[in-house]
Design a protein that fits this description.
Blueprint: H1 2-8, H2 12-150, H3 153-171
């Protein structure tokens, strides 16, 4: 109790300017509140609406991004299958191309063999014809030599006379 009495025994001369400042501050804050309550309320509500609108927009953008992420993840998951399908298709096309090249090569070999066979036949016929001509020429030469060697002048005269008579019989 003496403590309380001690507090009450304050020097009001020192305390009065402090109390005046506090009262002045409370009056200032009260007046500021009274005059600025509505404009600040409107401004804060507008700011609050802007924040709410920004949050909703951010939520929509997040939802869009999550949807796109899901779509991209789905596409990535399907990408492995698509790559495998492309790889299988490429292998199939390579095999088909290999078979086509093999068939074309075999056809080309067949054509070359046929052409070679025809050329060999042609060269063979030409060689046979040349050999026949050569043989005939050599036979004629040999026969001519044999005739010249074996025919005497009387035989020659006899042959010429026979031809002349034969020619004479043809004229009649």
């Amino acid at each position: 109790m003496t403590y309380i009495l001690g507090l009450l025994a304050v020097d009001w001369g020192e305390l009065l300017p402090t109390l005046a400042r506090i009262a002045n501050l409370l009056l200032f804050v009260g007046l500021m509140y009274f005059f600025l309550r509505r404009p600040l309320g409107v401004a804060f509500r507008g700011h609050q609406d802007d924040i709410r609108r920004d949050l909703m927009l951010a939520q929509e953008e997040r939802n869009t991004a999550v949807a796109k992420l899901g779509e991209i993840e789905g596409r990535l998951a399907g990408l492995d299958a698509e790559v495998e399908a492309i790889r299988a298709q490429a292998q199939k096309e390579a095999n088909a191309e290999r078979e086509r090249i093999k068939a074309a090569t075999e056809e080309e070999i067949r054509k070359i063999r046929e052409q070679a066979r025809r050329e060999i036949e042609s060269v063979s016929k030409a060689a046979r014809a040349e050999l026949r001509a050569y043989t005939a020429e050599q036979s004629v030469k040999l026969a001519e030599e044999m005739i010249r060697r074996d025919i005497r002048a009387e035989d020659d005269e006899h042959l010429v006379r026979g031809y002349v008579e034969e020619l004479g019989g043809v004229r009649r």
